[in-house]
Amino acid sequence: MTRPIVQVERVSKSYRIGGLHPGYMTFREMFAGMVSAPLRRLRGDDERRPSSQTIWALKDVSFEVRPGETVGFVGRNGAGKSTLLKILSRVTKPTAGEAALYGRVGSLLEVGTGFHPDLTGRENVFLNGAILGMRREEIARKFDEIVAFSELEQFIETPVKFYSSGMYVRLAFSVAAHLEPEILIMDEVLAVGDAAFQQKCLDKMNDIRREGRTIFFVSHDTAAVTRLCRRALFLERGRVVADGPAHEVISEYLSANWQARAERDWDEREAPGGGVARLRRLRVSDERGETLAVADIRRPVRVELTYEVLQPGHTLAPHVEIYNDEGAHLFSTHDTSAEWRRAPRPAGTYTSAVEIPGNLLPEGTLLAYASIVSHFPATALHAQEREGVAFQVVDALAGDSARGDYTGPIPGALRPLLPWATRFDAPGGDENFPAARGSAAPHDAR
Amino acid sequence: MDLKTNDSAGALATGGPAARAGAAGGGHVLPEHPVIRVRPQGSGPAFDLRELWDFRELLYFLTWRDLKVRYKQTVLGIAWVIVQPVLTMLAFTVFFNRLGGFRSEGMPYPLFAYAGLLLWTFFSNAVIYGTNSLIQNSNLVTKVYFPRMFIPAAAVAAGLVDLAVASVVLFALALYYEVALGWSLLLLPIFVALTVLLATAVGLLASASTVRYRDLKHALPFLIQLWLFASPVIYSSSAIPARWRWVYFANPLAGIIDGFRAALMGHAFDWPAVGAAAAITLVLLSVSLYLFRRIEETFADVI
Question: What gap in Å lies between CA A95 and CA B81, rounded to an integer?
Answer without folding.
Answer: 46
